[in-house]
Amino acid sequence: MGLFDKWFPKESYNAEYKELVARNAPLDGVIPASYSEFVLGDPKQVLRLPVVYRSIQIIANMASQLELEVFDGKRKVDSPPIIRKPDVNQPTALFIRQIVTELATYGECFLRVYFDGRGAASSLDILPTSSVGVTKENGRIKYSYNGQSFNQKQIKHLKLFALADDNDLHGKGPIQASKSIFELALLLEQYAMVQFDSDAIPRGKLTTNQEINPEDLAELAQGVKEFIQNNGGILALTHGLDYEPIVGDPTKTQFIDVQNMVNRMIAAVFGVPAEALLLPGEGSSMTYQNVSQSNIRFLQNTLSAYLNVIEVHLSEFLTGNKQVRFREDDLLRLDTKGKWEVIEIQQRVGYTSGDELRREEGKEPLPEPNKELKKEDDEI
């Protein structure tokens, strides 16, 4: 019988053992698990981080607001069914949003192509990215999904970013390119969970006023730890023992500062403005003018990478020189005053007419003015 069992007989307490959130930590309590415990596996792990979820949501939502158009050279033409509604099972906006979400999360997206009786593409289906295999044999790319093999005509492989590497046939996105930042974010999340977990045992110092040899001291420390675990965090000590928790102060450990820094780095990796994520830090007052400029920068620096990948692959289903383009003007909508200033200039230089503008808004042309009244007005 050890010293702890002698001083605190097991018959005196009876509780089930509770697994701690920080069980894998080198030292239970506020000391988080080692960095090696947070090697990023499935990128979906980081979607639970608010800044990651919101960044992807902003990118996907803005892309889904843009309509697809088809151009033959510079002339706009009617869109075929495969472009008007690529996935027959869902609206086009949701289809685009899902593609962008896959690209932002995995850096790639796989589209299963279905053909009609004439051999023309009739519908597309987005496959679960993590379930698709990619291999290269004799210079040809092959794909596997649900035990079936597919060629490059049957599956379109969209890559947000890729290197010419035969050993890595997958695309890369923000998460794959900067894994260490996201692993650090998960580490900070674990730190916060342990910090506020009432069941976790904080690292502490056990002291006694009695003479105890080193072997008994180690057994006593382990016994106190198990006693706390088995009794809902309540500790009753006798025989001159005293337990003093060592809890890290988030302010002193700069936890908040480090977390804010990591969140801003994640926003930068995704290319989403920090103010759009409501992140603390140096900000600016957003007016109508700089909101428009911010949208332009977001389109040029971030969104265009996603849109271009989709445009290129959808254009492969068209004939001749036809190309698919997103109507990016929808993203650059001006405030009311700016919009009418542009319209005034367009009418003044003869670029458009009032009837054309009303037709674009689904309105009937204004009635022709009465010629007799106009003549009287001229005479006056």
Brief rundown of the structure:
The protein has 12 helices and 11 strands. The protein has helices spanning 3-7, 50-64, 81-84, 92-106, 174-177, 179-195, 214-230, 255-270, 288-315, 336-348, 354-360, 371-379, and strands at 68-72, 75-77, 108-115, 121-127, 133-137, 140-145, 148-150, 155-159, 204-208, 241-245, 322-326.
What are its keywords?
three-stranded antiparallel β-sheet; 380 residues; elongated; 12 helices; alpha+beta; single chain
Sequence-ordered SSE layout with sheet pairings:
Blueprint: H1 3-7, H2 50-64, E1 68-72, E2 75-77, H3 81-84, H4 92-106, E3 108-115, E4 121-127, E5 133-137, E6 140-145, E7 148-150, E8 155-159, H5 174-177, H6 179-195, E9 204-208, H7 214-230, E10 241-245, H8 255-270, H9 288-315, E11 322-326, H10 336-348, H11 354-360, H12 371-379
Helix pairs in contact: 2-4, 2-8, 6-8
